[in-house]
Amino acid sequence: MKIASYNVNSIKARLELLSLWLEHRGSDIDILCLQETKTIDQTFPFEALKELGFECTISGQKAYNGVAICSKLSVTDIKYGFLDPYFDMQKRIISVKINDINIINIYAPHGALRGEEKYLYKLGWFDRLFTFLNENYTPNDNIIILGDFNVALTDKDVYDPIALFDIAATMQEERDALNKIIEFGLIDCFRHVNKDDGMYSWWSYSGAAIWNNLGMRIDYLLATKSMLPKLVNIDIDLWPRRKKNITPSDHAPIVAEFIF
Question: Which of 68, 134, 156, 163 could form a disulfide bond with 34, CB atoms 3.0-4.6 angstroms apart?
Answer without folding.
Answer: 68
